[in-house]
Amino acid sequence: MNRKRLALMAGALLIALVAAACSNDEGGTNADQTSPAETVSPITISSGSTQIDIGGGELPDGFPDSFPIPDGSTPVNSVSGTDGYFVWFSSDQSVDELRSFFQENLPSNGWTISNTMETTTAEGTFTIYTISGNGFSGGVYVGESASGTDTFTGEYAFNVQLYPEQTSAGQ
After folding, report:
1. Which residue among 89, 92, 128, 152 has its CA within the 20 to 30 Å range from the CA of 32?
2. pTM of the predicted model as reported, rounded to 2 decimal places
3. Measured between alpha carbons, how far is 49 from 30 in angstroms, rounded to an integer?
């Protein structure tokens, strides 16, 4: 579990640093008034098995097809590699619509919600779904102040973190 948290923090930090460096807008446009995909030019950084995509609008290679993505949602930033997938999404759906979507569609697509937690901070309320299925475990974070969403300029409605489940030798 510590390795997963470390990978998440490292990925989030790296994306934040790259996004901040790339969002220096000398054209005078206010990045706070644009969509996430418009705040930076799409870039990809690869190192070994890890790939970072910023502003690309596509799911990382190998992201599980069985994971349900709400209509009107676009992947904006992602970190992927052998340790898993971290994908930040914008969406035209409300937070309540997204919560309903995941509660209904995760189980119907082979994902188990093992825990749901709602947290309220000064920035707002967000919901965390702890999930597993289809060879992965992880979480879905829904809400304006969802973990990692405040790292970027723009509006990020939810993020998904998936880690390959470990199997024992001989199984």
Report:
1. 128
2. 0.70
3. 35
